[in-house]
Design brief:
It is a single chain. With 173 residues, this protein is of the alpha+beta class. Helices cover 16% and strands 38% of the residues. The chain has 1 helix and 13 strands. The strands form 4 sheets. Strands 2-9-8-5 form a 4-stranded mixed beta sheet, with no helix packed on it. Strands 10-11-13-12 form a 4-stranded antiparallel beta sheet, with no helix packed on it. A hairpin with a 4-residue loop joins strand 12 and strand 13. The termini are far apart. About 6% of the residues have low confidence.
């Protein structure tokens, strides 16, 4: 009789532990999270925030609308340099992302250059870009000429390009 009682108690404990384990796993699977809790953006950039772990649509708000705006789809637009908190509310759950907005810049190694068309003179100049801002990524540099009939631009690397004279004239970049 005692052994039967012990066996029943052990079986009930195993069942209870199984139920507790299943409930913990279900809660972990339904954890509501925001796509990122920190971000750095350049002025003028847009970024999409998302919330997962729920079937409900979040309500979005920016706590510094002079720095960033957020629409109800979670798209954040950087307006000016500064810091802002963006919050998503899903039912009674509040999730936030701190957004730092910075001014991006691209500086070239030369302010101006004279290149010659034809002859034995130098007819190319190499430019190098230095970037700063949220990405500091030279891949964001797009090289082009304001007048491709006067000067052509050839990308050498992500940070460098060659400008070649085609005809006599002026091109502003």
């Amino acid at each position: 009789m005692r052994s039967r009682l012990k066996l029943m108690l052990m079986a009930m404990m195993v069942m209870l532990l199984s139920v507790v384990q299943i409930n913990v796993n279900a809660a972990e699977e339904n954890k509501i999270v925001i796509s990122t809790d920190k971000a750095t953006m350049n002025v003028g950039d847009e970024m999409k925030l998302t919330v997962t772990g729920t079937g409900k649509t979040p309500t979005w708000v920016s706590f510094n609308e002079k720095v960033v705006e957020v629409d109800q789809t979670g798209t954040v637009t950087a307006l000016k340099a500064g810091t802002a908190k963006v919050q998503a509310r899903v039912g009674g759950t509040y999730l936030s992302c701190t957004v730092k907005v910075v001014n991006a810049s691209i500086n070239l190694n030369k302010k101006s250059a004279t290149i010659y068309c034809g002859g034995t003179s130098t007819n190319t100049v190499e430019l190098k870009a230095t970037t700063s801002g949220a990405t500091k990524n030279a891949q964001d540099v797009v090289w082009n000429s304001s007048d491709s009939t006067v000067a052509s631009v050839e990308k050498v690397t992500e940070k460098n390009c060659k400008v070649k004279a085609i005809v006599t004239g002026k091109s502003a970049g």
